[in-house]
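Two folds, back to back.
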Amino acid sequence: MPDFEITVVGAGVVGLAIAARLSEKHSHLVVLEKNEKYGLETSSRNSEVIHAGIYYKPGSLKARLCVEGRDELYALCRQHGISYQQISKIITATNDQELKRLESIYQNGLANGVGLEMLDKNATLRMEPHIETVGAIYSPLTGIINAHELMDYFYHKSTNDGATVQLRCEVVKIERTSGGYEITVRESGIESSFTCEVVINASGLYADRVAAMAGIDIDQVGYRLSFAKGSYFAVVPSKAKLISRLVYPVPRDEGLGVHALIDLGGRLKFGPDVEYLSDANFDYSVAESKRAAFAASIRHILPAIQDEDITPDMSGIRPKLQRKGELPKDFLILNERERGLPGLINLIGIDSPGLTASPAIARYVETLLS
């Protein structure tokens, strides 16, 4: 008999959401996290936006799970006192060429079932008089959330249902056995092993490496990740009230563009940019040298911001399946039974909208186990 029924590798928001859902019926579940606390990487270093589901390819997992997860997140926040605000969002076009692209984004959002409104210049300026615009999309369903409180909720729900969350516990080896898997972990330099029936790989930045531990050729199957660092700059308090909701540019390349974010404390930040890393050496510092380029990007949508109005704030790193210059790719969430690894669920390339989609991802993983 195995030591555990289910092992979840990774205690970010997605791993914790999975644990919270599965522990309702499977209390013999363990979550393994190599850091000293859950949610210290991508899950706590992002924009904390509840995305409406506008940009993603219709029919994709990102589109479907974002829309489902968005509604579920709002319900969770209301029911369990998780801090949030349905602050809304504008995607502003600043010239006629962007306005044409805005129309295709609008139609894409409608195809995903997102309620949106097209605004002309005057209507946009009535909502946000300080931004640069010739027209915009208004998204009333976009919001912001306290990601730490959300993860606290998932953590406590899991442990109250009997799950174990083991911190400072790094997975170093996964071997197939007749009854499931043997997991070797390292804690304080000491290695030990245990067995389980099911392994759910929700390890974010390390998901490709964990998949490789299980015997998958990650290059052959297209699981190898790229890492995109995104930095943020904070705006001085005297200019923090220039906007009243999230303001995004029309996307021009990788990512959604440097956009205006208001956090739950009322601080105004801009970010993230996209900086592809050459290796997995994760440095979270924000370079002061980015200030001028950042300010120029900000002025594209908020002209009143000068270089001296912004200061380096934070950064995050996103695990991406798309390489630099490629089109966005969908989430990969698969039961690997066809590769001779039944009971191994891999979640690869869970970048944005992973936070928004987290409760829906958990439900989807549950269906893969049935």
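---
second:
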Amino acid sequence: MQNKIIFLTLILLFPCLFVNAQTKDANISFDSEVHDFGKINEADGAVTVNFGFTNTGSLPLMIKQVHASCGCTSPNWSKEPVLPGKKGFVSATYNPKNRPGPFSKTITVVSNATTPNKVLTIRGDVIPKPKSLEDIYRFSMDKIRLKTNHMSFARVVKDQKGTQRVEIVNVSDKPVKVTFNRVPPHLSLSAKPAMLEPGQEGIIEGVYDSRVKDDWGFLVDRVDVMLDGEYKSSNRLTVSATVEEDFASMTAEQKASAPKIAFSENTFEFEEIKQGEKVEHVFTITNNGKSDLIIRKVQASCGCTAVSPEDRVIAAGGSTTMRVIFNSAGKVGKQNKTITIISNDPSHSRTILWVKGTVTQS
């Protein structure tokens, strides 16, 4: 009888012991898991919020890591163990610089609590700061500033002209005459007005004449900007254009009779060579179309790669070869070089071939 009483007593006590064992853990309870900054001014700089929490468990709480969802948010937190019943914090600092408009970011808190991951949220709306003259005209050339120092014509159809402009302003206290030096024949540049009064805004107007430029693909020129006739090496305007054929004007019949370029392979992998060694490969180019295939341009991405196509014009149904020599002098490690082929195939006017491998030190 006594044994039965002891047995029944243990059965009744066991759930209590089990529940007590379960509660022996750390537990993180935040006062709030979401903070709304409301409207904040970009000009006022970074804003910070502290998320307070209490360890409502029975063991010390340790925050292991805190991750922000964006580099614009910097977290901080209680580094020492937080004892049961005590308080700690996780803070989040948001930098609104160059981030106008609404935002919502998360901060993930990793700890030894019963719920190991907690996600906090900050949100708000950034009112952009008024733009200064330097913000609008970001590039400086002494007496003038430019919105950009790169005049990009993007696509220029062969045998046609492209026009582009760059906005400028005189930031000096005297009139400035803007002229240009080392302008190539296919490019014409003019400042309007040519003489900028103090504080006056103007433009640099450019015309790209692809009829004069005997070249294809992505092309770059650099022009000196002369202020009051003075040369300075840093006052340079980059001009770029991609010269392409006008395939859009072709009729369906013309496209059906067009050339079609094909390659024996698109990648040559030489595996591994020693520094200073050369490797060669021959690509076969085939014209599967119905008219002459014209190789407009062949350009390697590196001077270490020599490219020599045997023929520039391939008749319908014909083939030619292109020898590629890679020189590993001065190279080490993995190599990924490209060869760009520009042709009159309307479907594949630009093809990229690859030369890949590894160069080891000799």
